[in-house]
Amino acid sequence: AGMEEYDAGFDRCVQAVGHGNHSAGRFLDKCLRLLGVGVAEEPRFLSIAVGETRACDTVHAAFYPFRNWTSYLGCLCQSGLRSTR
Which of 21, 25, 30, 50 is the most buried (most CB within 10 A)? Predict the structure, then answer.
């Protein structure tokens, strides 16, 4: 339901929040709050790098940010994923 609200209210968010003024995550957070969509954080879902430290493990479902495929693939391999690419 939250993403449907986001889709319906995206233009409102761009006007009120300013799409180019924030990172993607910050924009989404501000937009969802503006639209009255409840926010539920799940710290095991996304591993966000702090400086050069990142958790490339089997606990998290996704890893962010990576500037290129090689470093992202390295993290996925570190987490135990096997890739043919």
Answer: 30
